[in-house]
């Protein structure tokens, strides 16, 4: 299915008024007041950073687009019946009228019938992976319901980690499922998933009625590579652990980035007295930049750093919907970097090294 979640985070307008809305889009929804860590999923884009059960229920059929359509058809039929035709013919006319109405369905009608794709966007601490157990789900395939577990996040058709940066192909990262709940317990209703990084997504499209209970847990890992940032100010350590791999840290907000320590590249590169902020490929390097969407492949570069230093480097501001630091490693060297990242604010415009197109 075409998984598209409309989110307006890319609409970063460089004006003061724009900031509150940008902030609001990414407020998290942990609710410590609820006992037993039970959370109700109410927003279509629900960001979760706490372990526990996440419950979604769609009961009221009056809210569904299909039902509104049925009500409209009934009203139309009633209208046709009231046109003063003889009762016997009236029923036929109303049936015909309804049919024509449905047949001549405009693009707008179709749009309305297109059910919304929503998601439980899970984000853990940088050194964790996400585990989602479907304790229960009632997403009937026959009514067009569909659920999907995504190893990463998806927004507007773009993925984090980027399609090329992940060790699994996209087909393996997206697992779609639905069921016919009436067959339970003949058909098992449990599912279990694990992500490869601290970000995972449970998508659902439930047009008529349905429900699910998803249990979210986090597990520590020792060699995190791709990390989605939730803190608005923190230090992050990146390392390739000697491997040929590219690791990305992305923040879903405009960010100020500085380097706390650095050790990237071969001996000759590290022996240089100054950190090089313009290292050319194919050398190992730390790319700093940003993009409007989630995939780091399309990111614009502000700097590409290599060398060695343990002094705090200068701050630079990335004014993009997504700010990204990406460690590109050939596997020939032990690369590591510690970066300090914080949310950019209007005064940081002065140290901007990249401003993404709107
Ligand atoms: C890492 O990224 C570089 C440049 O973007 C690319 O040439 C290389 O193939 C990537 N390596 C891996 C292991 O994906």
TrEMBL record:
Chief location bin = secreted
Return the GO cellular component terms, semicolon-separated.
Answer: extracellular space
Q: Where in the cell is it found?
A: Secreted
Q: Which domain of life is it from?
A: Eukaryota
What organism is recorded for this protein?
A: Drosophila yakuba (Fruit fly)
Protein name per UniProt: Corticotropin-releasing factor-binding protein
Asked if Glycoprotein is a keyword of the record, the answer is yes
Q: Which residues form the signal peptide?
A: 1-18
The record, for Pfam families, names: CRF-BP_C, CRF-BP_N
Would the keyword Disulfide bond be found if you checked this record's keyword annotation?
Answer: yes
Task: Please give one Gene Ontology molecular function term for this protein.
Answer: corticotropin-releasing hormone binding
Q: Which residue intervals define the domain Corticotropin-releasing factor binding protein C-terminal in the entry? A: 228-348
Give GO BP annotations, semicolon-separated: hormone-mediated signaling pathway; negative regulation of corticotropin secretion
Q: Which UniProt keywords apply?
A: Disulfide bond, Glycoprotein, Secreted, Signal
Where is each Corticotropin-releasing factor binding protein N-terminal domain found? 117-212
Q: Which gene encodes it?
A: Dyak\GE23389
């Amino acid at each position: 299915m075409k998984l598209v979640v409309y989110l307006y985070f890319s609409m970063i307008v460089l004006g003061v008024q724009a900031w509150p809305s940008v902030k609001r889009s990414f407020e998290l929804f942990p609710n410590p007041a609820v006992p037993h860590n039970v959370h109700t999923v109410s927003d279509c884009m629900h960001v979760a950073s706490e372990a526990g059960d996440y419950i979604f229920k769609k009961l009221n059929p009056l809210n569904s687009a299909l039902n509104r359509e049925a009500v409209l058809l009934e009203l139309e039929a009633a209208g046709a019946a009231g046109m003063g035709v003889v009762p016997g013919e009236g029923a036929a006319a109303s049936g015909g009228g309804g049919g024509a109405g449905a047949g001549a369905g405009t693009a707008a009608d179709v749009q309305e019938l297109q059910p919304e794709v929503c998601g439980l966007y899970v984000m853990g601490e940088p050194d964790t992976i996400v585990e989602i157990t479907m304790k229960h789900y009632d997403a009937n395939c026959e009514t067009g319901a569909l659920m999907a577990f995504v190893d990463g996040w998806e927004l507007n058709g773009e993925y984090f980690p980027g399609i090329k940066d992940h060790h699994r192909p996209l087909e393996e990262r997206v697992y779609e499922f639905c069921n016919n709940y009436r067959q339970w317990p003949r058909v098992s209703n449990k599912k279990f998933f694990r992500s490869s990084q601290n970000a995972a997504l449970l998508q659902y499209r439930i047009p008529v009625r349905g429900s699910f209970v998803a249990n979210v847990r986090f597990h520590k890992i020792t060699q995190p590579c791709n990390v989605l940032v939730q803190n608005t100010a923190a230090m992050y350590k990146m390392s390739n652990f000697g491997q040929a791999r590219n690791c990305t840290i992305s923040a879903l907000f405009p960010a100020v980035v500085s380097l706390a320590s650095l050790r990237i590249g071969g001996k000759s590169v590290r022996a240089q007295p100054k950190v090089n902020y313009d290292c050319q490929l194919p050398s190992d390097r730390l790319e700093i930049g940003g993009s409007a969407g989630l995939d780091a492949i399309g990111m614009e570069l502000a700097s590409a750093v290599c060398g060695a230093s343990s002094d705090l480097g200068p701050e630079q501001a990335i004014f993009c919907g997504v700010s990204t630091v990406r460690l590109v490693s050939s596997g020939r060297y032990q690369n590591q970097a510690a970066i300090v990242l914080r949310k950019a604010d209007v005064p940081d415009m002065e140290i901007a090294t990249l401003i993404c197109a709107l």
